[in-house]
Amino acid sequence: MSKHSSGFVKQEVKQGVLWLTLTRTDKKNALTQTMYLELSKALQDADRDSSISAVILTGSGDSFTAGNDLHDFLSIEDLDDSAPPFEFLYTLSRLSVPLVAGVNGLSIGIGTTILLHCDLVYASATATFALPFINLGLVPEAASSLLLPKLVGHLRASELLLLGDSFDASAALAYGLVNKVVAPEQLAAELEQVAAALASKPRAGLRAAKRLIKEQDEPVADRIEREAHIFIKALSSETARKAIAERLQRKK
Length: 252
Hints:
Blueprint: E1 9-14, E2 17-22, H1 33-48, E3 54-59, E4 63-65, H2 70-74, H3 84-94, E5 99-103, E6 106-108, H4 110-113, E7 120-124, E8 128-130, H5 144-152, H6 154-163, E9 167-168, H7 169-175, E10 180-182, H8 187-199, H9 203-214, H10 220-235, H11 238-251
Parallel strand pairs: 2-3, 3-5, 4-6, 5-7, 6-8, 7-10
Antiparallel strand pairs: 1-2, 8-9
């Protein structure tokens, strides 16, 4: 085990999908500096690997993640935005490969803000969410002060960030924070199904579409122009031509 390996981030590639599972079960998968480094490297490697269709992130036991390990976090010397937690957040923000979260339980602090950077989120009916930064005398992180109001509106975001109360999976679904809520015993199968669906799509197309979806606001005409340039380039690719030919053949 390397000096930068915690042993608490399990990595497995299955059919072109990278599965990352947090396995610090006895600590509710609370994140340490070393775990952040492992996650950052795994995501960066996946982004560079054109054979990877998507990344699935989930937790073991009864937790997705309880957030930062506060003892470990407070031990960071000379804390600045190059520290492992912030490197991980920057990696998330720049990720081009689709990222899917499977929220299997406790999802606190960064366990919730990380979802704002995911492209698809599936939660167990027993999942619990919270953004308790205010209760610790802290401010929101992971650009949640920007992304959450865009997702749920100013008033709801203020409620979640200024009061810091926990909320359940049905509320997360109503807020648009998750795509679907399933029974705990069905979450693994749901993630496998989503992984298979993403693995069946053209990989370059997935990444190009994600980039467009995540772009910040711009005039509609400018977006049409940028989409057109990417669309025209994609249309001439062998992948698109083959897919269109197969679709036309099926119609015949």
